[in-house]
Amino acid sequence: MKLKIKNPWLQLTAVWLAMLCLFTISVGLAFAPIGVWHSVINLIIAGILVMSIMTFFMHLKDSEGLLRLTAGTGFFWLIILFTLSLADYFSRYSF
Amino acid sequence: MSAVTVPDVKRPPHFPEEHYLNNSFSLKSWLTTTDHKRIAWLFFVALTFMFFIGGAAATVMRLELLTPAGDLVSDGSYARLFSTHGIIMVWFFLIPSIPNTFGNFLLPMMIGAKDMAFPRINLLSWYVYMLGAGVLIGALFAGSPDAGWTFYTPLSTQYTDPATIIAAVGVFIVGFSTIMTAINFIVTTHRLRAPGMTWFRLPLFVWSMYAVAILMLLATPVLAITLLMVTVQHWLGIAIFNPAMGGDPLLFQHMFWFYSHPAVYIMLIPAMGVVSELITTFSRKQVFGYEIMVFSMLMISLASFFVWGHHMFVAGESVYSALIFSVMTFIVSVPSAIKIFNWTTTMYKGKISFDAPMLYGVSFIGLFLVGGLTGLILAMTGLDMNLHGTYFVIAHFHYIMVGGAVTAYMGALHYWWPKITGRMYPEMWGRAAAIAIFVGFNATFGPQYLLGVAGMPRRYHTYPPVYQVLNEASTAGAVVLAVGYALPFCYLIWSLRYGKIAPPNPWGATGLEWKTASPPPPHNFEEPVMVTDKPYDYIKYDAEHGEWQGRP
Amino acid sequence: MNAKSDQIKEQFETLEQQKSADRLGMWIFLATETMLFGGLFFAYTASHTLHPHVFSEASHELEWNLEFGNTAVLLTSGFTMALAEIAVSLKRRGLTTLLLLTTIFLGIWFLVVKGVEYVDDFQNGIVPFIAGGYFYTGPSPEIAKLFFNFYFALTGLHAFHMSIGVLLLFIMTTLAWRWRDPDKLTRQMTIVGLYWAFIDVAWMVIYTTLYLLQQ
Question: What is the pTM of this model?
Answer without folding.
Answer: 0.94
